[in-house]
Amino acid sequence: MCTFSYFSLSRRHTFSIAIPLQKQPLPGYPEHPLTVGEHIRKKRMDLGLLQKEVAEIIGVTESSIWNWEHGVEPELLYNPKIINFLGYVPFDSPDDTIGRLAWYKKINGLNLKELGRQMNRHPDQLQEWLSGERRPFNKSLERIEQFLERESRVLGGCHVQ
């Protein structure tokens, strides 16, 4: 509410005018981000940062941030730094074991070789499982579950948005 005073030569008038003020979103501000790039743009705009500043935080070029904000998916290896910048994981975590393994690989920015090293599995076997080409036997599913459980305790869990 704003109050204005109006003065004339003969008398002083005071009156109030109610002007509802609503904060207008900035152009391009994603209210409900869906892509990683939209999550980055929203966080960047919330913090009042330039693309160049976000690029320095994540360790990429300014053009990478621009590309991500305009629909290009970031390379896998940048996901941990993006998640750190956002303060949450912008990817949904599936309920099934293989989906959770793929999610773990994605949020940690791992390639198949690195994931295989962590799990003591051959990357080709992991590729077959993650692509759906083959389904792991029950014993392997149990080991994957144990691995994911152990890693979630080590990481303290992740906040998913």
Key traits:
161 residues; mainly alpha; two-stranded antiparallel ribbon
Q: Radius of gyration from the CA trace?
A: 25 Å
What is the averaged pLDDT score? Answer: 88
In quaternary terms, these chains amount to: single chain
Separation, N- and C-terminal Cα atoms: 36 Å
Number of helices: 8
Helix content: 40-55%
H/E element order: EEHHHHHHHH
General form? elongated
Total strand segments: 2
Structural class: mainly alpha
Query: How much of the residues is beta strand, in percent?
Result: 5-15%
Strand order of the largest sheet: 1-2
Ranges where pLDDT stays below 50 over 5 or more residues in a row are none
Largest sheet: 2 strands, antiparallel
Give me the secondary-structure topology.
Layout: E1 2-7, E2 12-17, H1 36-47, H2 51-58, H3 62-69, H4 79-86, H5 97-107, H6 112-119, H7 123-131, H8 138-155
Structure description:
The protein has eight helices and two strands, in the order E-E-H-H-H-H-H-H-H-H. The protein has helices spanning 36-47, 51-58, 62-69, 79-86, 97-107, 112-119, 123-131, 138-155, and strands spanning 2-7, 12-17. Strand 1 and strand 2 form a beta hairpin. Helix 1 (36-47) packs across helix 3 (62-69). The protein is elongated and about 95 Å long. The protein starts with a strand and ends in a 6-residue tail after the last helix. The mean pLDDT is 88.
